[in-house]
Specification:
Shape: elongated
Strand order of the largest sheet: 6-7-8-3-9-10
Radius of gyration: 24 Å
Number of helices: 10
Number of domains: 2
Structural class: alpha/beta
Order of helices and strands: EEEHEEHEHHHEHEHEEHEEEHEH
Strand content: 25-35%
Largest sheet: 6 strands, mixed
Distance between the termini: 78 Å
Length: 319
């Protein structure tokens, strides 16, 4: 079978259209739409129960949607599931393997399903880079070593798309760095990565784009750089003298606190206008801090917004 023809551009890595998934009376996915461009590392974020794993299982035809359509690399995930699985490397969040096998035997077993894509040299390189002994039996492997084995079986055929559910769970920081390099190399080779993770520092480091899912709905899909650029900046500026009271009456700028000649601010959607306003005064010190992806992520899940801080008020000279 061949995927749908695309004109003038490469087929998307993933397409979800109005996908609904109900478990009895519980709605796990509420009609989500998602379009993932190829050749990127896409982070899929959300807390437990948000719908991340349900989405991944639909992509691999492990479960069927109640409504809507899902495509991977142009193939329909239900009607062409064999074609999808031929092209996907998958690490599930609940990784299970044959306990009695040695690690190498398990990789041989996985290799037997894709003999045309067998690459002994690349597999050996992965074992070396992730420091995994193929002679050890799976039942004696630690959680971290089991995770390494799961990653190797997903990577070793150089699939067009890697679908990874919590891929670095249980790995030490040095191994996590090596996994990040492997994913970056895969993308440099023209392949795609769909990565679901709770490790927001990892997503921030390796992903170009992120989708945030909340209660079965897509809350946002953004480039990481653009998302951070549009998010809140924390600014602390100390002036040579107290600034004019209306200096910071700017769109998207809020004064949090004033300590004499030091002003603490929050700026949303960029700081260009704020910096220009600050530059009209004599400045002794300036500090800025951009929120991490974790801060941004948590903002999407804040049920009740924080009460606004008092507006800027110039203090009397005798205060």
């Amino acid at each position: 079978m061949r995927p749908m023809a695309m004109t003038g551009r490469q087929r998307p890595a993933i397409e979800l259209s109005s996908v609904v998934k109900d478990y009895g009376r519980t709605r796990a996915l509420a009609g989500i739409d998602l379009h993932v461009e190829p050749g990127r590392i896409f982070g899929f974020l959300g807390p437990n129960g948000a719908g991340k794993t349900t989405t991944i299982r639909i992509l691999l035809d492990l479960i069927r949607p109640t409504a809507g359509t899902a495509r991977v690399l142009g193939f329909d995930c239900q009607r062409q599931s064999i074609e999808v699985r031929r092209r996907v490397g998958y690490v599930p969040g609940d990784l299970r393997m044959y306990e009695s096998m040695r690690a190498g035997e398990f990789l041989d077993f996985i290799d037997s399903f894709r003999p045309a894509r067998r690459d002994a040299a690349f597999r050996a390189a992965l074992l070396e880079r992730l420091a995994l002994d193929p002679a050890r039996r799976i039942r004696v492997l630690s959680k971290g070593n089991r995770q390494k084995l799961g990653l190797i079986q997903a990577l070793m055929h150089r699939p067009e798309l890697l679908v990874l559910d919590e891929p670095t769970s249980g790995l030490d920081p040095l191994v996590q760095e090596e996994v990040s390099r492997l994913l970056e190399e895969a993308v440099a080779d023209g392949r795609s990565v769909f990565l679901s993770s709770h490790a927001l520092s990892e997503v921030e480091r390796v992903c170009q784009s992120v989708g945030i899912i909340r209660q079965g709905e897509i809350a946002a899909v953004e480039d990481v750089a653009r998302l951070k650029a549009r998010s809140m900046h924390v600014v602390e500026v100390t002036f040579a003298a107290p600034p004019p009271s209306r200096l910071f009456d700017l769109p998207g700028v809020r004064v949090v606190r004033v300590d004499g000649s030091t002003v603490h601010l929050q700026a949303h959607d960029g700081i260009d206008a704020l910096v220009k306003a600050i530059a009209t005064q004599r400045v002794l010190d300036l500090r800025t801090e951009q929120p991490s992806l974790e801060d941004i992520f948590l903002a999407y899940y804040t049920e009740t917004p924080a009460a606004p801080a008092p507006l800027y008020e110039e203090r009397p000279a005798h205060a």
